[in-house]
Each structure stands twice: as C-alpha cells, then as structure tokens.
C-alpha cells in the first residue's frame, strides 16, 4: 500500500496487514458442539470443529483467553509440535483420532516450548442455561515434563490430579482421561480452565444441552 500527500507525491510501498474482522455480538453456535484441539495442519475428525489456539473472537464465538479474564490470548503458535505423526492426523498406536492431537493449556510449565509459553483458558459464547460437557486430556507420547492434568468447567471439577510420570508408562489409552460434567452458564460464556494443574493438555470436548 502507498499514500499520496497534498502535492501528489507517492510514498514508498508498505507491507500489507491481515486482521480478523470481529463482530459486536458472538456467532450463534448450535449444540451439540464438538471441538478438537489440534495443530492447524492436522486432519479434523468428522463432525468436529478445529481449534488450534486462536484467541477468542465474537466472529468465531470461541477461543482462548487469559485465565480469570475475557482478554483474548493467541496460542496458535505452537501448541503441538509440527512434524509429529499425530499432528498430521495420523493414528498413534490405533488410538481414537481425537486423542492423536492436543493443545497445551499450560505451556508455561514446559521447560522448552516451541510456541507461546503461557497458560490459557478456553471460552465459547452460549446462551445461559445448563449443559453437559465431555472433555478429554492426555498425550499419546511419553514426555519428560512433569504433568498433572486438571480441567474445570464453569468452576466445576471435571478432571483432577491425573498424573503421568515423565518418560515412563502407562502407554496407549491409559495416557488419557475423559469425564462429563453438567454445568450452568450465567454470563453468556462457558469457560474451561486448568487452574491447579501442571502442563495440562486438552484433546477434545463435546458440549450439549443438559439431559432432562
């Protein structure tokens, strides 16, 4: 892009800028809502929407924020390491594809991280009411950073104290935990955080209207 002054002189070309145009009201998302947390390049499981660490924006209706606030947080750099088989959507030891991918909720607990080294909370704009929320945590690979997975949904404990010992078994499906909790949204946003955990890694979640 360039500019002209009042004498008609043209400035040097400047580099272009890309920005996500936001809206004043959040997108209208329908439940059941299925989110898979993954590298941007990975295959998206059928029926799911991918989240690769984008900051919360009304135009999307969901995304990451600083814990305890509504301040958008961009975790899209890193989150999973490009090149790992599971990040390309390939199956790891025959696991459910949703477990082959993840996103770090507490990257600041990792000694050497390839992306944004910060803790984040995830939010989605939903009408006030009661919801059933299923969430999964874990990592198919045996890492070497201390890990205790914790997930709170609207302040309700879903997963607490699921610890894997660095560099050792269990392997396969035993490296994951899932849980379903019923929560109530009162402020137009359903919030998921990992407060109280260490190096929590989230795989996927399913949000649906609460069963009668």
Blueprint (SSEs and pairs):
Elements: E1 33-37, E2 49-51, E3 62-65, E4 103-104, E5 121-125, E6 129-138, E7 147-153, E8 156-164, E9 176-185, E10 189-193, E11 201-209
Parallel strand pairs: 1-2
Antiparallel strand pairs: 1-11, 3-5, 4-11, 5-10, 6-9, 6-11, 7-8, 7-10
Fraction in helix: under 10%
Number of strands: 11
Category by helix and strand content: mainly beta
Whole-number mean pLDDT: 83
What is the number of helices? 0
How large is the share of residues in beta strands? Answer: 25-35%
Largest sheet: 6 strands, mixed
Globally, the shape reads globular
Residue runs with pLDDT of under 50 for 5 or more positions: 1-10, 14-18, 81-91
Give the termini distance in whole angstroms.
57 Å
| Helix and strand sequence | EEEEEEEEEEE
Rounded Rg: 19 Å
Description:
There is one protein chain. The protein has strands spanning 33-37, 49-51, 62-65, 103-104, 121-125, 129-138, 147-153, 156-164, 176-185, 189-193, 201-209. It has 212 residues and is mainly beta. Strands 1, 2, 4, 6, 9 and 11 form a 6-stranded mixed β-sheet that branches. It has a 5-stranded antiparallel β-sheet with strand order 3-5-10-7-8, with no helix packed on it. Residues 1-10, 14-18 and 81-91 have low confidence and may be disordered.
């Amino acid at each position: 892009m360039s500019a002209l002054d009042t004498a008609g002189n043209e400035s040097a070309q400047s580099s272009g800028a890309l920005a996500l145009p936001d809206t004043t009201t959040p997108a209208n998302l329908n439940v059941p809502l299925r989110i898979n947390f993954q590298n941007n390049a990975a295959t998206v499981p059928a029926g799911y929407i991918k989240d690769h660490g984008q900051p919360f924006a009304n135009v999307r209706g969901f995304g990451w924020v600083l814990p305890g606030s509504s301040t958008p947080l961009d975790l899209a750099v890193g989150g999973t390491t490009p090149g790992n088989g599971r990040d390309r959507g390939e199956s790891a030891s025959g696991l459910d594809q949703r477990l082959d991918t993840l996103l770090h909720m507490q990257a600041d607990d990792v000694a050497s991280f390839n992306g944004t080294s910060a803790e984040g909370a995830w939010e989605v704009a939903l009408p006030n009411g009661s919801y059933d929320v299923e969430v999964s945590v874990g990592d198919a690979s045996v890492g070497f950073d201390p890990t205790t997975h914790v997930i709170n949904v609207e302040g309700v404990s879903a997963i607490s104290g699921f610890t894997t010992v660095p560099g050792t078994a269990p392997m396969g499906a035993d490296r994951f935990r899932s849980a379903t909790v019923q929560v109530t949204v009162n402020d137009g946003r359903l919030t998921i955080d990992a407060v109280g955990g260490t190096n929590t890694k989230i795989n996927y979640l399913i949000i649906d209207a609460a069963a009668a």
